[in-house]
């Protein structure tokens, strides 16, 4: 499909037919708490020192405990799914993700999601794949994570 211009999507559900490359969703924000980090560590078993101990994090040059990169990615997916503008999603097909800067306990994150490409399914006419670019920033506007998600969506 050809890019016909960027627009920030308003509230509603968007399937393949209502989207075009360049369309954007801006999520709300979420403050990452110590409780979030502790709960993710308990669930995942990842108790690496910089996540669990502020003194250990400082020894490695961080100002405070560092949120797990995968915790932040999970929170970003939740922010996407809670945004007023929604993709009419069926399933995620994969992520290509980079952790660009640490997210510390107390940081507030948000994401801008841009539709990179839209591919109708040749075998299932009721669906297609949206390729989405993510830029995750903290409260200072610093980019902390970026990546691409391939999302199966309804037509």
TrEMBL record:
<dbReference type="InterPro" id="IPR029069">
    <property type="entry name" value="HotDog_dom_sf"/>
</dbReference>
<dbReference type="Pfam" id="PF01575">
    <property type="entry name" value="MaoC_dehydratas"/>
</dbReference>
<protein>
    <submittedName>
        <fullName>Acyl dehydratase</fullName>
    </submittedName>
</protein>
<dbReference type="InterPro" id="IPR052342">
    <property type="entry name" value="MCH/BMMD"/>
</dbReference>
<feature type="domain" description="MaoC-like">
    <location>
        <begin position="27"/>
        <end position="117"/>
    </location>
</feature>
<dbReference type="InterPro" id="IPR002539">
    <property type="entry name" value="MaoC-like_dom"/>
</dbReference>
């Amino acid at each position: 499909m050809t890019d016909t211009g960027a627009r920030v999507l308003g509230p509603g559900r968007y399937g393949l037919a209502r989207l075009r490359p360049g369309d954007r969703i801006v999520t709300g924000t979420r403050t990452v708490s110590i409780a979030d980090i502790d709960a993710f560590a308990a669930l995942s078993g990842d108790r690496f020192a910089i996540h669990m101990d502020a003194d250990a994090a400082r020894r490695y040059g961080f100002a405070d405990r560092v949120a797990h990169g995968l915790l932040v990615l999970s929170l970003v997916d939740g922010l996407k799914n809670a945004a007023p503008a929604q993709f009419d999603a069926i399933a995620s097909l994969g992520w290509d993700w980079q952790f660009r800067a640490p997210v510390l306990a107390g940081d507030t994150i948000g994401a801008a999601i841009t539709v990179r490409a839209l591919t109708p399914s040749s075998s299932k006419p009721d669906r297609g794949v949206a390729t989405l670019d993510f830029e995750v920033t903290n409260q200072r506007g610093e980019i902390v994570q970026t990546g691409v998600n391939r999302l199966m969506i309804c037509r």
